[in-house]
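Exercise (ungraded).
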Amino acid sequence: MMVESASETIRTTPSNQNGVSSLTSQSDGGGGREGGSNGDTNGEISPVELLHLQQQQQLGSKQLAFQQQLIQMQQLQQQHILNLQRQGLVPMQPTATMQSLQQAMCPSDLQQLWKEVSGVPSSEEALKQGEGLDLSTNSSNSTSAFPKAASAHMPLHSLPNGQGHTPKRDSHEEHSGSHPLYGHGECKWPGCEALCEDMGQFIKHLNNEHALDDRSTAQCRVQMQVVQQLEIQLAKESERLQAMMTHLHMRPSEPKPFNQPLNLASSASLLKRESEAYPEGLPHPPTSAAAPITPILHSHSHSHSHHPHGVGPIRRRNSDKFCTPIASELAQNCEFYKNADVRPPFTYASLIRHAILEAPDRQLTLNEIYNWFTRMFAYFRRNTATWKNAVRHNLSLHKCFVRVENVKGAVWTVDEVEYQKRRPPKMTGSPTLVKNMISGLGFGSLNASYQAALAESSLSLLNPSLVNPSAASLNMLHVGHDDVSSTVEQVNSNSSCSPTLSPQQYSHHVHVKEEPTEIEEDCRPISLLAHVTHSLPMPSDDRDMEEDLPTEDLE
DNA sequence: TGCGATATAAACAGGT
DNA sequence: CACCTGTTTATATCGC
């Protein structure tokens, strides 16, 4: 039975092609989606190893417990990897990430780790000591496995009451408490998930269940190593990004050292806190809005919502809040959304608009919109109950959607003017950021936001609409809500350069510069990207380039 | 706390 | 009658 659980554990090795399904299925909290590949055939590690180990060690019951703990820790690691990926702090490259993790955290490593943690030279020692390894004797630990900074004397309960320096997590956590290990009414300790009604109960639980004992210490160390591995992985990915950008002539004038890639490095440091979100009210670093994040955020952070479905409804409008351009997001995560039963982090209106604008003639029938939804999102394939109604509701409700009688019957188009007016434009984040970003538009300097934007820009390379550097500053100040195409329009709205458009078509956008209030959620890194990419040869055939024509003109 | 945006649910009407 | 399409209303949640 032990072997079964071992293989079951390690089966989480992402061996499926895109790593999506397994991710999803895991993030579903055991939802067991059919999408989860059964690709347990990789077996680079452990089942065999563990089996071998077991045979060698004759498998006393205590050893089994120990092995189980190893496996459990491995599970925890992977769970944390997934969590971090969900939080967008890790590139969604499950294979690479997991592989690297596995390389570092294969059972033998874990055993080594365990030895280091416990000061136990072998698992036989562990056997002698029983499953309660005496971690108080770990004075000689943290040799090579752990950075000094993260070594043992890091107080396991450094956050005794959840106050102080603990960064805020998402708003839900703010509501439910401020302890980073407490949220949604449950303990966030790796693998715990104990329900706690309130903070007091949680503190009690924390002190009782996660006291300074062997297990907690080991888990903490495992977490440290997870973080370390993630940072390594992050550095690699950042380096790759750097190279890509360099190759694409995107490099800013002052290249950063690879080990400090854009803002990703700072994000990496956040991993240590397992921060899920930036403090509310502070400008969200655009890197955090990198495409892979949003789906994860939803599948994870909002899973608390008591929704009958496996994936709950997402009230939070991440695309808005995090300024995720829907086009780049979709471009980036197309396969993810197609395969993962994860609700896309966009509003219905955004999705409908995108669907319509994606159509060759910028118009779709209701049924075609349905089809687009089901084609693009597994979520809508599997959760058919309500969303169609919601789509219809949105079409009717929002003035930006215009019904047009066509030869085909009734089709729906998008009134871009109305869409832009849809919400009172305002800047999410501090006005200071706006100023900084604006001032940062000087082509020479690269402030943090700019660099962060570059990070996301790598995701948005697909967007050829950003070839117009001169419009970028305007673009900064007047952007669409969550869609690249709207950005295009604004770019084009700058009368100075609109090769394909007549200016009057966009006259309604022209004055944005005089209206700081038009600055909208801002941090659209895409705009920033425009500065960097102005010399970048971009394909001009993208539909976004021609997404110029508000279709209400068809009327 | 109020408000706006959004999601969800439902009722209803008209057309096919 | 069933279904689709479209409108409208009500309610709840969330973020500001």
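Further reading is listed at the end of the chapter. For now, observe: Residues 355 and 372 of chain A are 6 Å apart (CA to CA). Chain A has 24 helices and four strands.
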